[in-house]
Each structure stands twice: as C-alpha cells, then as structure tokens.
Amino acid sequence: MDLTVKTLEGKDAGTVSLSDAIFGLEPREDILARMVRWQLAKKQQGTHKAKGRSEIARTGSKMYKQKGTGRARHHSARAPQFRGGGKAHGPVVRSHAHDLPKKVRALALRHALSAKLRAEGLIVVDQLVAAEAKTKNLVNAFASLGLNNALFIGGAEVDANFKLAAQNIPNMHVLPVQGINVYDILRCGKLVLSKAAVEALEERFK
C-alpha cells in the first residue's frame, strides 16, 4: 500500500510503498499482549527483598515456658506474628523474565506496526533532521504535523540535533531503528518513521 510522505514542516514529499507483510496484517491483541507482558517482565529489576524469620537479628530462645502461663504457646520472637519478626512468604530477589519465542516477538512487532497504520497513527517523513538543536523550531514543526504524543524512529543513526531538540519536549520519544519495540509503539499516540527506518524494517523482515 502507498502512504504519503511528509516533511517535518507538514508538506507532502511524495509517496512510499509499504509492505503488506509488515504493515498490512490483521492485528491480534493476544500476540501484542504477550509481547508487552514479556517486555515489562524483562524490564522489572526484581531487587525487592524482605527478611524472613531466619534472617532477623533477634534471639531465637523460647519466649517463656510452654505451660502454666495461661498464654498461647510460642517459641522464637522472630516469628512473623510478632512486631519486629520476619516476613512470612515475603518477596525475594529474583528475575521476573520469562521466555517468548523469537518468531512470536518478530510477529508482534509487525502486528504493532499494522495496528498503528490501521488506526491512522502512522506517519512517514522524508528525514528526521534538524538544522540546529533548537527545541522551539521542533515544537512548531510538530504542531504542523498535529503531534503531541509521538515516537520517532530514525535510521541506524539518529540526527544529534534532532534528538537534542526533541528530548526537551514532553511525550516525544526518539529511537534509532534498532531500538523499535512493541511497548513504545503502543503507548505513544503516533508513530513517526523516517524513510530510512521504513527501508531498514523491510530489509529486516525480508
């Protein structure tokens, strides 16, 4: 399918032919949900920790004699029911990551790109280049394109001036084509691809 290419100023700059195998799929929510869950789980640090009863620096001797007090039977003050005791079944340091086949991950990216195009949230620009690192210039350019929450995907190398100017604008994210991912595509309102990014993606999924 053909899509009109825009400049950063909002003017037409010809058309680009998009591959149906990448941008023309029927989006499947189950695949996208699996991919987002995999990404977020892999991102989780897993450094949460609570001390169990064996790790508490407290005496382990019996609190009082077993019989004759009229009170409940207890042993160590490190038990979870006491103030200052250990946590029962508390969090431990671990990895939250789980496996997801590589083919499913590649398919999820194609479904995310197709979903963005189907929802009219995909814009292709001729190039993501700024003459100078001035945020004000990019704010005006984004306004002409109607952008207020977008993910910009450049080529293998992102223009330094464009990246510096865009990073000061709220809800605008810039990544090279190697960093494109399903979670960022879905959480941003618009996806803006440079022509170099489109070519790289089609080469990647060839």
From TrEMBL:
HAMAP family: Ribosomal_uL4_B. Residues 64-77 have a biased composition (Basic residues). InterPro entries: Ribosomal_uL4, Ribosomal_uL4-like, Ribosomal_uL4_dom_sf. GO terms for molecular function: rRNA binding; structural constituent of ribosome. Keywords: Ribonucleoprotein, Ribosomal protein, RNA-binding, rRNA-binding. The gene is rplD. One of its GO terms (cellular component) is ribosome. Residues 62-93 are annotated as: Disordered. One of the primary rRNA binding proteins, this protein initially binds near the 5'-end of the 23S rRNA. It is important during the early stages of 50S assembly. It makes multiple contacts with different domains of the 23S rRNA in the assembled 50S subunit and ribosome. Forms part of the polypeptide exit tunnel. GO terms for biological process: translation. This is Large ribosomal subunit protein uL4. Part of the 50S ribosomal subunit. The keyword DNA-binding does not apply. Gene3D superfamilies: 3.40.1370.10. The keyword Membrane does not apply. Belongs to the universal ribosomal protein uL4 family.
